[in-house]
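Lab notes, practical 5.
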Amino acid sequence: MLLILAVLLFQAELAHGSLTFKSEAQVAGDYITLSNLADLPPELAQKCGSALVWSAPPPGQIYTLTQEFLKYRLGQMGLIQYFPEATLPAAIQVRQTGVLLKGEDVAEAFRRYVQTHNPYPPDNLHIEVFPLKEPIILPDAQVTLKALPPRNDKNLGDVTLEIVVLHQGQPLKRLKVNGVVRLKRLVVCSTRPLRAEDTIGPGDIQVMPREVTGLNLDDFYSSPDQVLGHILAKSLGPQEILTSRHLSNQPIIKRGDEVTVVLDQNGLEVSTKGVAREQGYLGKNIRVVNPKSKKEFDALVVNAKTVKVQL
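Output from the prediction step:
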């Protein structure tokens, strides 16, 4: 204890001032200190005033410290022998003047940080902040809360933030605040059960709002055009999110397959037939031959049966 270190100085300092205990005291914080209970001479107040006597009452409540208790605590701290002339009152009524830190203010600071430091719109984020385990008492309500960056830079899923309570610009307390941040986005999902090796068609998928918190940005798809014509590597259940792990790396067009060739000139489309001269992957160009003219040309793979030529 701080007072034990100052015991040898205490007796000498008493000669320069008197010590009077109060019958009523007020505290604004978590603990009752010696300076809350007694009018100390200036030098003693500086050396010993912050010594902790007991925990403070919650806001709106009063603790009664009896004479017997005070003698016991002063004896524990090795000080009672240095106050032979001090008159302890029968009891000291201690009232808490501090205020409780509002849980909603902590939650708002948590949400504000997460929303500011995420690349997603706030409407896409569902943020649940867990309440503090213990009440926090402040000197007054004039505080600001500042959230610090998480050590793991994690702003989705299970998130822990350290929030600093600032009073008059100075750090007063540090709080560890936990929460869960869920991300919801419009993603491509299956409309019905699909089997491995099926080719994805327009009626097999739809865009739906789903939680994608545990997925990486390159795991899911936001547009049907990104997956139409792809072959599935694994089965899908109804309304299941379609991810990159579901898609096969196999070509969707094999060498020798007959394909429909769409000739596009300024939006005017004409279809004809062609034969693939090589394996084709969705979104990639392949060589196609006209079976009648035997002329070869490059075409863009649209799906497993269609290629397009832009004229």
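Observations recorded by the TA: The CA atoms of residues 133 and 177 lie 10 Å apart. The two ends are 88 Å apart (CA to CA).
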